[in-house]
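Q: I have 380 residues here and want to know how they pack in 3D. Can you give me a structure?
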Amino acid sequence: MRKKKNIYLLCAIAFLQGMVFYSAVATLYRQQAGLSVFEITAVEGASFALSMAMEIPWGWAADRIGYRRTMILCNLLFLGTKIIFWQAESFGAFLLERLLLAVTVSGLSGVDASLLYLSAPEKDAQRNEGWWRSAGEAGLLLSGLLYTVFLSGRYRDAALWTVFTYGLAAVLTFFLQEVKPEEKQAHQRLLPLARAHFRIPGMLPLVLCAAVFGEVVHCVTVYFGQLQYVRCGMGEQAIGAAFLLVSAAGLCGPLSHRLSKRFGDRRTGRGLLLGAALCMGSLVFLRIGILSVALIALLSLLSALFSPLSGAMENRLVATPDRATALSLNAMLADSLAVVLDLGLGRAADASLPLALGLCGAGCLAALLLFGTAARRSSR
């Protein structure tokens, strides 16, 4: 029962850290401080590179110092990034903020999911992950609404309110209970661990499936969706309303475990991936605004239902006590694949939006094949 409070705390922390009040104007915020678009993209690129480089070292460290201590340290650093962002007025300050953020995000990667998974019985893992992911989405949606109503145009005030929410999240972290079990075997070295981890039946295709599906849906719901709305002749107000609808659809994660309970993991995963492929295929030919919004919102819903399923399956397959390191290996592979997909899909979208949407649909079909392979191998 004491460990179960971790579930509520982790959901509350995710909700508070989702409340980034300036998220809708982050680029405008930096431009107002004097940064060019090139400088903004350079900072983002440096941050992503450092995040990937720190992923494995942080997982290795977390498995040795404990998940709770790692969460405390990283969430304090997280708070520090928001304070720096609030006060930043130069390229150097924004660069420092993003580099520190890269260290923080890579430190939390795998640790928060491990803490969540080990804080409750395995049968509740998918349900808990659904609530946890939806809590973050709810925080983002609420902060966007509050910014629009109360803080519109007040960039620095929005950053200050974000400092407050992240400060509260950091405080809540101290109440988490450690759940990392006592080691029954010595820690493995990284290379033997990585080889053994990806040889687990079903692990590699499952990680690739989740990475491909997550990235193509992200591209459509965040980037290509806006281009599709313009292609359909929608105005700015309609596009803003569409953003809220798509974001709200992403709150359906808690329903994921009910689908799996009724239809089974394999049928549920296949149905969600096939549905996403059909949505993207339809968008290739569609020029009707309201139907485009409905399909993109449906994509957001399908992704929200699939993420807890794939996350719970990955956690169940982990066979090493170095769980954070194993999940960091998964994240490293997924991030590397995301870079390649982003470059390819971005170039395709420059040439033709229907082409990019068609490739995203093909990505969903590839994810469907990978999921079927993972399900077969892991059930043997």
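Q: Anything worth noting?
A: The longest helix spans residues 37-65. Residues 59 and 231 are 43 Å apart (CA to CA).
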